[in-house]
Amino acid sequence: MTFAIKTLNAISRAGLSRLPEDAYHVASDVADPDALLLRSASLHGAEIPASVLAVARAGAGTNNIPIPEYSARGIPVFNTPGANANAVKELVVAALFLAARNIIPAAAFAHRLEGDAESMDKAVEAGKKAFVGFELPGRTLGVIGLGAIGVEVANAATALGMRVMGYDPNITVEHAWKLSSFVEHVTSLETMLKRADIVTLHVPLVPGTRGLIGSDQLALVRRSAVLVNFSRGPIVDEAAVVAALEAGRLRGYVCDFPSPELNKRPGVVTLPHLGASTGEAEENCARMAADELRNFLEQGTIVNSVNFPDAELPRGEGTVRIAIANSNVPNMVGQISTLLADRGLNIADLLNKSRGELAYTLVDVEGEVPAALVEEIRGIEGVLSARLL
Predict the structure, then answer these.
(1) CATH class of domain segment(s) 309-389
(2) pTM of the model
């Protein structure tokens, strides 16, 4: 069987090479794709063919994808958490130094110097006092969000001699194991804001995090505190940041998201969305996204979906697999099992996982499964999609 994948952005060859040419047709002009592979292209308002079974983004954020719409169609949306973690971590660490040592305005001052060596030396000695900064060891860093990136940032900051606090009500066991024992776990965002010299954000943009840092939160921070945002722009209320800077409540704001409100404003450093802009990160994201699509299309496996639960079931030898996406409602597995039993088919293995309002079921069946049976499964109320592998 050959699968067709439509790319909506340029994808690194390192990732595309994970899709064997004898089994995958990958192009930007595929008419009826089985899956979509993209980076930053927006799918909001885009008409998606009925043939699409999955969408994978080579990156962590998925705010360019209308996830509720795809969930209703039983389409898993994959992302690549952690694939660009080192790239973002490095830039965040650089941002700490940019803010602490006033490097950007100091470099701009030096760039404007004119005259001979003697006059430049005098200007340097007279002007450098305006750029006095502070050192990082002993300062307190507050890390909001302890996913793959937040954990790496927290660990790097402890290695720099900083005191580090971490806040994440939803931290996973996996990430907790990777977190340095020197990182203090705090359970209150307000407590963190009051104690931190620098606050850095590492959370996804979802309804619950939009405007997470606004005027009420900035009213709590220490005077001369610095805010760092390499997650998503709308997580921070820009108007509140500007007001805090003008009032002297905030020393600086370093982010990856230029805007008319922030551009050329004193105390603000904006970068052109460079967080994951390294060759290594692009390759890592492309590899992971390609692997996720391949495992799903060939085996029905779900790993790193933002809307459906992880589901991995070793394939039984000589079995036929049915993959079913459905609403998380009672007796779904019972109805599926009854249909199989009525056809005289034995279930060799079964996995049913749920995540909120959605669920996913893998059924390995002994014997031949007629296409008509799959249609009957699709007809069960609450089934969003079903396919035979």
Answers:
(1) alpha beta
(2) 0.82
